[in-house]
Design brief:
heterodimer; A: about 270 residues; mainly alpha; about 0% strand; B: about 230 residues; alpha/beta; Rossmann fold; 6-stranded mixed β-sheet; 3-stranded antiparallel β-sheet; 8 helices
């Protein structure tokens, strides 16, 4: 039992190290590369077109669910005036980044892992290397950067949809009109809340991009290997994001508290 | 010229680590065509991939006097997300740094050489096995390599298509004056294409003889391979 836990722990650390060094290698290549923008913009448009409907539908329902849940609690304290603020704050700070990253992991992460894995086992990546082109530069960097940039665009889009959906549900089912809903938003959702939401989204999308590309790029063993890579990419990404969620929440709250203490800001 | 000295590669799996081949030493002259034959699993493709720089050897060294090389893969390894023409445009623009207009002209010319001009807009999965092989050859040649590596170029092809590919290889070899390494199990094509033939068996190289000499060799491994005799 102890040996099993030890081995699993070492495997986990080994995996984290390998993914981190893969990400660093990709970012170094990105820094050195010029004229890669066409590939990156193509990938961004692919990610956005493949994800926006899912984000839109998920955004509508998440906004709606959240406002109903908050309403249930706030109603019992007669504090519905805070409905808009609390709902928006939760969406921007926590639910939005988490949801976007899970959707990206399921859709784009799995797709990228499968695509790269297939290219690896069918020797297409070897062929790229043989033609004197750096596969990290040609295949990995555009995908990674595109996932990271797209996550921010999708977050913005998803948040707007969610907030409007929440406003509508609040008006129809909770008796809180648009103006009342919107009036409490600035009180709970300041610049720091918005920034922390975007920082979290960037961290999670970096995890999605790194894990998915790494798993696909290092796939071995034919169709079975590709299947394994895709499954691992999806599962590991969700697992790493949950851990990252705790760490980012803790550190961002710590920074916020420090800032408040030092500069006296809210 | 290619000089290989004491080359060795280990085969690793979860439990064991055994030598696939070791102490391979040979030399290939400029513009020479050398064929490596051997039973399945003897490490022919691995040897080719080591020479091509895709794998690292566990022992020995390789000296390539010209590192500009191209490779035709056994299963073609065509970029399935690109059309036939784009498969040639990628190496021209990314590797040769040509402009899109120049690259397009060059790609068209190469597609004509391999008889695929009318299939330029088709994706690899829309091409037949022989056409895919010809596209693979064109993609390797488009960067004008001085060394060309063919991994089982006629594998899985019918005899007529196999002959067409072999004829194309001879024509292109004359046209582009490159050093050629071929890995194959097809004895007929090996004797047709090779200036010299090696046999890779039991982790060692045998032969290195011209086709007639190879067929008439008294070396037991070669006799066993050529005539299909059991041990």
């Amino acid at each position: 039992m102890i040996t099993y836990v030890k081995n699993t722990g070492f495997d986990f650390l080994h995996e984290i190290g390998a993914i981190t060094s893969f990400f660093i290698q990709a970012m170094r290549t990105f820094r050195k590369t010029k004229d890669n923008y066409d590939l990156i913009t193509t990938q961004i448009s692919l990610v956005l077109t493949r994800s926006y409907t899912t984000v839109m539908i998920a955004g509508i329902f998440v906004g709606a669910i959240l406002v109903l849940q908050f309403d249930l609690m706030l109603r019992s304290y007669d504090a519905q005036i805070f409905l808009g603020g609390l709902n928006t704050s939760a969406l921007v700070r926590e639910i939005g980044p988490l949801l976007i990253s899970f959707l990206l992991a399921g859709k784009i992460g799995a797709y990228s892992a499968a695509e790269l894995g297939t290219m690896r086992v069918t020797e297409q990546i070897d062929a790229i290397e043989c033609l004197g082109t750096n596969p990290i530069q040609y295949l990995i960097v555009p995908r990674m950067v595109a996932i990271m940039i797209s996550s921010l665009i999708l977050l913005m889009f998803g948040l707007v949809i969610s907030i409007f959906s929440a406003m509508l549900i609040a008006q129809v089912f909770c008796g809180v009109n648009f103006l009342r809903f919107a009036s409490s938003i600035p009180r709970f959702t300041g610049l720091w809340t918005i920034s922390s939401g975007f920082i979290k989204s960037l961290v999670y999308s970096t995890i999605v991009a790194s894990v998915a590309c790494y798993k696909g790029y290092t796939a071995t063993g034919g169709a079975r290997g590709v299947g394994k890579a895709v499954t691992q990419a999806s599962v590991y990404v969700c697992f790493y994001i949950v851990i990252a969620n705790f760490l980012t929440s803790y550190f961002l709250d710590f920074i916020y508290e420090m800032g408040r203490l030092i500069f006296g800001i809210y | 010229m290619i000089q290989v000295q004491g080359l060795g590669k280990k085969f690793n799996n979860d439990k064991t680590s055994e030598w696939l081949f070791r102490d391979l030493t040979f030399e290939i002259k400029e513009n020479e065509t050398v064929v490596f034959m051997g039973a399945s699993g003897t490490g022919k493709t691995t040897l080719l991939k080591i020479i091509g720089g895709l794998l690292n050897p566990d022992q020995g060294k390789i000296e390539l006097h010209n590192e500009h090389l191209g490779m035709v893969f056994q299963k073609n390894a065509l970029f399935d997300f690109l059309t036939a023409e784009e498969n040639l445009l990628l190496p021209l623009t990314e590797c040769m740094q040509q402009t899109q207009i120049d690259a397009k002209k060059e790609a068209q010319a190469f597609l004509e050489v391999v008889g695929l001009k009318d299939s330029a807009k088709l994706f690899p999965n829309e091409l037949s096995g022989g056409m895919q092989k010809r596209l693979g050859v064109a993609r390797a040649l488009v960067i004008r390599p001085k060394i060309l590596l063919y991994d089982d170029p006629t594998a899985g092809l019918d005899p007529i298509t196999s002959k067409k590919i072999a004829d194309l290889m001879i024509k292109l070899k004359k046209q582009y004056q490159s050093t050629v390494l071929i890995v194959t199990n097809d004895l007929k094509r090996a004797t047709q294409l090779g200036d010299r033939i090696y046999l890779l068996a039991n982790g060692k190289l045998f032969g290195g003889l011209e086709p007639n000499g190879f067929l008439l060799s008294n070396e037991p491994h070669i006799i066993q391979f050529v005539f299909g005799l059991r041990k």
